Amino acid sequence: MILIVDDSPENIFTLKTLLELHAFPTDSASSGEEALKKTLRNSYALIILDVQMPGMDGFEVAETLSGNNATKDIPIIFLSAINVEKKYITKGYSSGGIDYVTKPIDPDILLLRVKTFYRLYEQNRVLNQMQDSLRLEIEFRKAAQKEAQAASKRKDEFMSIASHELKTPLASVKAYVQLLDRSLVKDDRIKGYLDRTLAQINKLNSLIVDLLDTSRIENGRLKFNETFFNFNKLLKESVDMISQIYPDYKIRVSGESNALVKGDETRLEQVILNYMTNAIKYSPDIRELELHSSVQDGFLILSVKDFGIGIPKENQADVFRKFYRVEGTAQRFQGLGVGLYICFEIIRRHNGKCWLESEVGKGSTFYFSLPIANPIAEN
Question: Residue 82's domain spans which residues?
Fold first, then answer.
């Protein structure tokens, strides 16, 4: 569309008639102020601008348009019957115009100029669209490349961590067994060595189980033995187990969990234990946990709250990703970064959800939900 700006209705009518006769769509403004308002609302391929207008003259309009990123590229043809001296023509070009036409107008010459600038504008518009598409494609490829590099890095980190985590327990087992061999006859500390050996063996076993579960999830071979059971019983047994392992931790349980659910009891116990052991691991200074269960909209919701180090907001969306570990915790806390990923997959396959709330320095609350079962309806 071409915008005609002139304070004379007769001039606007003449130009509109000429341009529309040659299939150019037009719009008009009778003042500089009106023209500026229209350029903010509409897109124009060309502006034909009268120089001598009351209020804001054509030069001021052009300078304003040139200073705006949205309008600076619109070509401007100045029209003038009075300011025809060289200094005015020079000012017109320096104000942002691409041509300066003096009146009386030669219709054929004006049409040739309009066609030329209109065609150039359209070509430039197409080029800009191609550049935008190319820029988006480049950004997409860069993002994909970055993600691939990140995935490769995570894999390398995993291999390094896995190697370290698996070698350390084995080295400890070997050392304690050697100590047992030396002191079996003459030292009563055998029980202590045995306890430590068993702890390291259990740790190694846990790592291996997590790796196997991760592999089964990836290959679609993680099986579930689903039955109907009372969640309150499962929760109580899980809390009792953790209390025996960590007797110096105070575990408070509140809410209502006396609901029937359908699922793999062993796998869901695995999720509860993982949530609780994670809470203990990441809150070494405050030995308290809070568990709360509730029923909302047909779902049982369990939360496990600790008062530990917390998780930065920018990392919270990634904690359930495979092999993800929050930056800064890898050196202080051992692990492969697969436990929460396994929990997420177990709960997802039970048609539930996992999420968390956390604040650095104040602790974290991890949640999961499970649909409440209706045995009569399912039968």
Answer: 2-105
